[in-house]
Design brief:
The chain has about 350 residues and is an alpha/beta fold. Helices cover about 25% and strands about 25% of the residues. The chain has 10 helices and 16 strands. The longest helix is centred in the first third of the chain and has 19 residues, at about 55-75.
């Protein structure tokens, strides 16, 4: 599996960060399940040449982002965040159902840098987890401000979780249960000296959840410190899919950690189904991320990856259709995202409908 390379951000990877105590919400927050109805989907337009120095690959990446946005736009509105100076090029690739907002971006990872929207009673707010470039491993002068700028445009209050991290690093079922890898949270590059118990309490408050399942994960081997959403996803209350290699390399820390996560979830009585990783792929590199779990649930559809292995692509599509029986499964070639260590879920963030 290829993991996102570290792009120098002018701050040492091992830097520590001071942490304020989490701000207490006046009312409890609730982040609804991803499969609940959306008003729109947020996405981000990648432009930074320090992050993506190869101009040809950057163009290919932009086309991939446009293809994902256009596929989602068949089912719900999409809001693409980009500097006004980038709108002209983006507009030529995007369908009419994709609206452009003038919020400057660097990279494409809306799941991590975008706003986590929660309900506080009947009011929508941003339950804010501060993005810092995955522990100051990548430039984030623009991307670290995106959640705040979206909240300003929408007129939503910002409720500070007191945490530094990324929404891709924690999975929620929307019914009280979270799961995460410790490596993405209990890590000095995000949360200083905060311990697991403090981080867990803040995450439960930020999502309005009651229980959390932790697995160890992998520190320092990829830019995300092994985000959970490329491995395992909740598909309903206490029910999940996990993407595992049928022939694991026990010298590969990600394979070892993936099976450890499987064991932890089984021990926690999560209803768990395994989808095998593809054996044959269009991209042959051993570090390529080929995650069927990194799909996105939008209104009426699942937007998912296919990697060119007929057998495992079909297994994954059948499993997704079984877990989401009322939705159309739309598959895309998103190999460009796999080449830089991510997938469709990493590139999207939902705006849930008002209640």
């Amino acid at each position: 599996m290829k993991r996102r390379e570290f792009i120098a951000a002018g701050i040492a990877t091992g830097a520590t960060f001071s942490q304020a105590r989490p701000a207490l919400a006046t009312q409890p927050l609730h982040v609804r399940p991803e499969e609940d109805r959306h008003e729109a989907t947020f996405m981000m337009w990648p432009v930074n040449r320090k992050v993506h120095p190869n101009a040809s690959f950057l163009q290919h990446l932009q086309l991939t982002i446009a293809n994902i946005a256009n596929a989602i736009a068949d089912f719900e509105p999409v809001i693409m965040l980009a500097a006004a100076s980038d709108h002209g090029k983006a507009r030529r690739m995007l369908a009419r159902g994709v609206e452009l907002w003038d919020i400057p971006t660097e990279d494409l990872w809306a799941r991590d840098a975008g706003p986590l929207i929660a309900h506080q009673g009947s009011k929508r707010v941003v339950s804010h987890i501060q993005f810092n470039g995955w522990g100051a491993k990548q430039v984030h002068k623009r991307d670290s401000k995106i959640a705040r700028e979206v909240a300003h445009i929408l007129g939503f209050d910002m409720i500070d979780s007191g945490l530094i991290g990324e929404a891709g690093g924690v999975e929620h079922d929307g019914h009280g249960l979270l799961m995460a890898h410790e490596s993405s949270w209990v890590n000095r590059n995000r949360n200083g000296a905060l311990g697991r118990a403090e981080i867990e309490r803040s995450l439960l408050n930020a999502y309005g959840a009651e229980r959390m399942i932790w697995a160890k994960g992998v520190k320092g081997e990829d830019i995300t410190d092994y985000h959970i959403d490329s491995l395992a996803r909740f598909t309903g209350p206490n029910r999940a899919l996990i993407n595992l290699n049928d022939n694991p390399d026990w010298e590969d820390p990600f394979h070892v950690a993936a099976y450890e996560t499987y064991d932890v979830l089984k021990a926690a009585d999560v209803q768990l189904e395994v989808i095998p990783e593809p054996t044959y792929r269009r991209v042959k590199g051993v570090e390529f991320v080929a995650s069927y779990a990194n799909y996105y649930a939008c209104n009426g559809a699942l937007i998912a990856a296919a990697f060119g292995d007929h057998e495992t692509d079909e297994i994954a599509q059948t499993a997704l259709a079984r877990h989401y029986p009322e939705r159309e499964v739309v598959t895309l070639n998103v190999d460009a995202l796999g080449e830089i260590g991510g997938g469709i879920h990493c590139a999207t963030q939902q705006l849930p409908e008002a209640i």
